[in-house]
Amino acid sequence: MKPALLLAALLLSTPALADWKPVEKIDTYAVSGQTAEQLYLSIGEKGPLIGTAGNARRVIAHTFFKLTWQRDYQPQGNACVLKTARPKLIITYTLPKPAGKLEPALQARWDRFAAGLIAHEKVHGAGIVDMVDKIVAFSTGLTVENDPGCKKVRAELTAYLDQLSRAQRQGSRDFDTKEFGHDGNMLKLIAAFLDGD
Length: 197
Known about the structure:
The chain has 5 helices and 6 strands; from the N terminus they run αβαββββαβαα. It has 197 residues and is α+β, with helices and mostly antiparallel strands. The protein starts with a helix and ends with a helix. The model is unreliable at 1-17 (pLDDT under 50).
């Protein structure tokens, strides 16, 4: 077989880890005001709520995701093999948007502020995509012996998913702590918006 044909055959027979793409959406919530301070106060009143009912708080912006899977479990002899795992990932970024027209100087300040917000949220999105890539890599071809009913392989996968999910959430919290901490990018972004720098 020619090298190019051999490579093509290998590529076709090897599960592709990057053959999926997330769907990214932007939702907005309306804020009102004709000064930076008024707009920021409106964000505080109308921003997305996160946390549990008794511990909910408003945030400026938020990244949410919905992840579902198509998995092909195949018994092979006494073992079970997870042949393929195809994710469907929808990432939704929720961001503020002025309800009315802003005067040009304020609009320019808002545009810089909004660009910084989406850049921050996209880091959260990249962390989610990285987690899903790791799940695909771990899942594809996962084999468990003495599992003709494909129950043990599911339990092993679930344990790994739980571990990855906890790591992703912690990474997201750590990133926010740094961004909103002393001299963090988000604090600078908010100060620049409010002060007009």
